[in-house]
Amino acid sequence: MSARDDILANRLNTEPAIFRGCSSSELGVIVSVAALIWLPVSLLLAWLMGAVTMGFGIAGVGVVVTVIVMATLFQRLKRGRPDGYYLQRIAIHLDDHGLRRSPFIRRSGAWDIGRSRSATLPLRNR
Fold first, then answer.
1. Cβ distance 25 to 15 under 8 Å?
2. pTM for the model
3. How many Cβ atoms are within 10 Å of 59's Cβ, its own excluded?
4. 77-82-84 Cα angle (round to 5)
5. Based on the number of CB atoms within 10 Å of its own CB, is 55 exposed (0-12), middle (13-18) or buried (19 or more)?
6. Span 96-117, mean pLDDT?
7. For 64-85, how does the pLDDT look when each residue is reduced to its tens digit (9 = 90+)?
8. How far, in Å, CA of 75 to CA of 19, rounded?
Protein backbone atom coordinates (compact mmCIF):
# COMPACT_ATOMS: atom_id res chain seq x y z
CA MET A 1 0.00 0.00 0.00
CA SER A 2 1.18 3.50 -0.66
CA ALA A 3 1.60 5.92 2.21
CA ARG A 4 -1.31 7.96 0.90
CA ASP A 5 -3.78 5.07 1.03
CA ASP A 6 -2.54 3.81 4.39
CA ILE A 7 -5.18 5.47 6.57
CA LEU A 8 -6.31 2.89 9.11
CA ALA A 9 -8.93 3.25 11.80
CA ASN A 10 -6.62 1.90 14.50
CA ARG A 11 -4.39 4.94 14.03
CA LEU A 12 -7.08 7.41 15.03
CA ASN A 13 -6.83 9.01 18.46
CA THR A 14 -10.55 9.69 18.81
CA GLU A 15 -13.78 8.61 17.20
CA PRO A 16 -14.38 10.40 13.90
CA ALA A 17 -17.18 12.94 13.65
CA ILE A 18 -20.16 11.52 11.78
CA PHE A 19 -22.96 14.08 12.06
CA ARG A 20 -22.54 17.73 13.04
CA GLY A 21 -19.34 17.05 14.95
CA CYS A 22 -20.78 14.13 16.97
CA SER A 23 -19.25 10.67 16.98
CA SER A 24 -21.30 7.50 16.62
CA SER A 25 -21.30 6.84 20.37
CA GLU A 26 -22.53 10.38 21.09
CA LEU A 27 -25.26 10.02 18.49
CA GLY A 28 -26.24 6.67 20.01
CA VAL A 29 -26.68 8.28 23.43
CA ILE A 30 -28.68 11.18 21.98
CA VAL A 31 -30.97 8.81 20.03
CA SER A 32 -31.46 6.53 23.05
CA VAL A 33 -32.36 9.35 25.44
CA ALA A 34 -34.60 11.00 22.85
CA ALA A 35 -36.44 7.72 22.21
CA LEU A 36 -36.87 7.09 25.94
CA ILE A 37 -38.45 10.52 26.30
CA TRP A 38 -40.47 10.82 23.08
CA LEU A 39 -41.95 7.33 22.83
CA PRO A 40 -43.99 7.33 26.06
CA VAL A 41 -44.99 10.98 25.69
CA SER A 42 -46.12 10.63 22.08
CA LEU A 43 -47.96 7.36 22.72
CA LEU A 44 -49.80 8.96 25.62
CA LEU A 45 -50.74 11.99 23.55
CA ALA A 46 -51.88 9.83 20.62
CA TRP A 47 -53.89 7.57 22.97
CA LEU A 48 -55.65 10.64 24.38
CA MET A 49 -56.51 11.72 20.81
CA GLY A 50 -57.76 8.23 19.94
CA ALA A 51 -55.10 7.19 17.40
CA VAL A 52 -52.44 5.18 19.22
CA THR A 53 -50.46 4.25 16.11
CA MET A 54 -50.01 7.92 15.30
CA GLY A 55 -47.85 8.08 18.44
CA PHE A 56 -45.05 6.15 16.73
CA GLY A 57 -44.95 8.73 13.94
CA ILE A 58 -44.89 11.58 16.44
CA ALA A 59 -42.10 9.83 18.33
CA GLY A 60 -40.09 9.33 15.14
CA VAL A 61 -40.35 12.99 14.18
CA GLY A 62 -39.56 14.04 17.76
CA VAL A 63 -36.44 11.85 17.88
CA VAL A 64 -35.16 13.21 14.56
CA VAL A 65 -35.71 16.83 15.62
CA THR A 66 -34.10 16.16 19.01
CA VAL A 67 -31.04 14.58 17.37
CA ILE A 68 -30.60 17.57 15.06
CA VAL A 69 -30.99 20.11 17.87
CA MET A 70 -28.77 18.26 20.36
CA ALA A 71 -26.06 17.57 17.75
CA THR A 72 -26.02 21.28 16.94
CA LEU A 73 -25.70 22.15 20.64
CA PHE A 74 -22.86 19.64 21.08
CA GLN A 75 -21.17 21.09 17.99
CA ARG A 76 -21.25 24.56 19.52
CA LEU A 77 -20.08 23.24 22.89
CA LYS A 78 -17.15 21.33 21.39
CA ARG A 79 -16.00 23.97 18.89
CA GLY A 80 -12.33 24.84 19.38
CA ARG A 81 -11.99 22.77 22.54
CA PRO A 82 -9.95 19.62 23.24
CA ASP A 83 -11.37 16.10 22.99
CA GLY A 84 -13.52 15.13 25.97
CA TYR A 85 -14.11 18.73 27.06
CA TYR A 86 -17.86 18.41 27.45
CA LEU A 87 -17.46 15.18 29.46
CA GLN A 88 -15.29 17.07 31.91
CA ARG A 89 -17.81 19.92 32.07
CA ILE A 90 -20.63 17.45 32.78
CA ALA A 91 -18.58 15.80 35.56
CA ILE A 92 -17.86 19.19 37.14
CA HIS A 93 -21.53 20.22 36.83
CA LEU A 94 -22.67 17.02 38.55
CA ASP A 95 -20.10 17.60 41.30
CA ASP A 96 -21.28 21.19 41.79
CA HIS A 97 -24.83 19.97 42.35
CA GLY A 98 -23.80 17.08 44.62
CA LEU A 99 -25.00 14.34 42.26
CA ARG A 100 -21.61 12.69 41.63
CA ARG A 101 -18.06 13.28 42.83
CA SER A 102 -15.71 14.74 40.27
CA PRO A 103 -12.42 12.94 39.62
CA PHE A 104 -10.68 16.31 39.17
CA ILE A 105 -8.82 18.32 41.78
CA ARG A 106 -10.62 21.64 41.87
CA ARG A 107 -9.19 23.11 45.07
CA SER A 108 -7.17 26.30 44.85
CA GLY A 109 -4.87 27.56 47.56
CA ALA A 110 -1.86 26.42 49.51
CA TRP A 111 -1.26 22.70 49.92
CA ASP A 112 0.17 21.15 53.06
CA ILE A 113 1.92 17.82 53.52
CA GLY A 114 0.24 17.31 56.88
CA ARG A 115 3.34 17.12 59.08
CA SER A 116 3.66 19.14 62.26
CA ARG A 117 7.45 18.96 62.55
CA SER A 118 10.43 18.48 60.29
CA ALA A 119 11.50 14.97 59.40
CA THR A 120 15.13 13.97 59.76
CA LEU A 121 16.77 11.96 57.07
CA PRO A 122 18.53 8.76 58.13
CA LEU A 123 22.29 8.67 57.65
CA ARG A 124 23.62 6.31 55.03
CA ASN A 125 26.35 3.79 55.74
CA ARG A 126 29.40 4.73 53.70
1. yes
2. 0.64
3. 21
4. 75
5. buried
6. 81
7. 999 999 999 888 888 888 877 8
8. 9
What is the Cβ-side half-sphere exposure of residue 66, based on CA atoms within 13 angstroms?
A: 19
Q: In Å, what is the CA distance from 92 to each residue of 37, 83, 103, 111?
A: 25, 16, 9, 21
Domain borders along the chain are 14-96
Please tell me what DSSP assigns to residue 10. Answer: G
pLDDT score for 10: 61
**Amino acid type, 16:** P
**Phi-psi domain of 80 (left: phi exceeds 0; alpha: psi -120 through 50; beta: other):** left
Q: At what angle do helices 54-78 and 85-96 cross, to 10 degrees?
A: 100
Per-residue pLDDT for 97 more than 70?
yes
End-to-end CA distance of the chain: 61
